[in-house]
Amino acid sequence: MADSYYRTIKGKQYDRELLEIVEKASKRSKAPLSKKIATSLFKAIVDGGDYTDIEKRTVKYIRDNFNFATDADEYLRTEIRKWAAKISAPASKKVSSKSAKKSRTTSTIARMHDIKESEDTYYHVYDNETEDEIEPTPEYNELVELNRYGQKPKSSTYIRYVFIGILIVVLICLFLILRSCRGGSKDHSSTKTSNTQIEAPKTKTEQREQLLPHIEIGPGQVSIQFKKRGDAIRYINDLRISFIKQTLNVGSGASDSIATLAEALKAYPEIKIRVKGHTCFIGELDENKILSEERAKLVRDELVKLGVNASQLDVRGFGETTNIDSNYTEAGRINNRRVDFSVLSIDSK
Question: What transmembrane ranges does the database entry give (predicted)?
Fold first, then answer.
C-alpha cells in the first residue's frame, strides 16, 4: 500500500502524485513550469484534506529541483501558506473528534467484553472438581506472604539499630565539619556573588553572540534636535534601520539613526513605541521569526544603552509576514530586511 502512494528517494518518502505532476509537465516542455502546473499541485495537496510532513517535504524537493516561473512559484508558496493556516485550527478539532470516537468505540468493546466475562463466570459449573483442585484465591496468597514477612529473625532488627546508630554518628561529624568551615565559606560566597553581579550584564549579549554572531553597533552622531513633540513622532514613524541578509549586522548609517532616535525618546519620555523586526522571505519561516525578534531586541538594547527608559520600548518580531516591497528583486529584499518603529501611546502625565 505504501508503494502506491509514496516514492522513496535517498531513504526519504515523497508523495508520488505530486512528483508525477511536475515530471510529466517537465517532459512535455523545457520551459519553466507555469502557474497552471502550480495550480494542479495545490489542488492535489488540498484534495488530501491535510498538509502532512511528507507533502511538505515533497513540495520543498520540487521547488529545489524543478524550475518554476516566477508567478507560479509565488502562487504556490502563497496559496499553500494561506491554506495551511486556515486548516490548522479545524485539524486539531478533527483529531480530537476522531480520538473521542475511538475512545467511545474502545469503551463499548470493553463493556461488551466485561459483560461476556461476567456471564461466563456466573454460569461456570464445577462438575466433578474437588475442593483440593480449586486454586487458592489472591486474598489467601496475600495473607501467606504477610505472615511470612512478619516472622523475620530477631537478628535483622538488631542490625537495623546498629546501622541507624552509625548513620547518626556520621551526620553529627558532618555537621561539626560544616560548622567549622562556615567562616571561610562566607568569604568565598561573597566573592563569588560579587563576581556574578559583575558578569550578569554580559549574559544577554553573550547569548545573542552565540545564537547569531554580529558586529557591534558603534557610537553614532545625533543628526536632528527635536523642538516639537510632533516632529519627534513623525521621525519615529518614518524611521527604518536596514540589516544585512540573514544576520544581525546593521546597514550603513544605522548608528546615527539609533542615536537620533534615542535623543527623541529622551527628550519626550511620555512617548511609548514599538520596535518591530522584519526579514525578507529567504530562509525558513520559523527561523525568520526568530531572526526578526533578535533584530528588534538588538535595537532595543542599543537604545537602553544610550539612556532610553526600557518602559518606553515594546519589542515584536514579524518574520517575513509584513513585507513592504517585492521579495523577487534584490532591492525589494533589502527594503524588507529592516527594523521600523511605530508610536503606541503618549502618556498625558
Answer: 158-178
